[in-house]
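Lab notebook page, bench 4
Experiment: in silico fold of construct C2
Operator: M.H.
Input chain length: 153 residues
Purpose: comparison with the prior construct
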Amino acid sequence: MKTKLALAMLALTVGLGLSPALPPAYAVDDMMSTDAPDLTSVRTKITAKDYAGALRELGKLAESVQHADLYNLMGYTLRKTGDFKRSLTYYTKAIEMQPEHKAAREYLGELYIETGNMEKAKEQLAVLAKLCPGGCEEREDLQKAINAKSVSN
């Protein structure tokens, strides 16, 4: 929720022509594993929609680090560039390493929506319902994306 609020504040601030003074920018995921590599720079690039820069940095990191957060962000960035096939590969790697990775589950569901596979998207939503039965941002976001696609069809 903090991420969405920060992004909304940034959009408002920039829209008003003011200089933003916000906490570090993150992609929608906010996994902060204690053993994760420092992905702050990558998340900043993704927030700025500098997907090419984020991919270069992620690619270098992936040469020496295997981590679910890194793979999730690689999948996210590839999806945003339209490389759905490779995106799927990285989301799958993230989930294989950490099956309860909520952000990877949400983004994989969004990938399925974008590629027209609503049944698979709903499967990811069901997993998120089990991972956070009381609700969580990832579950809510994926549900909204599914609902929006259902309404537009």
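Observations: The two ends are 28 Å apart (CA to CA). Confidence is low (pLDDT under 50) at residues 1-28.
Next step: discuss at group meeting.
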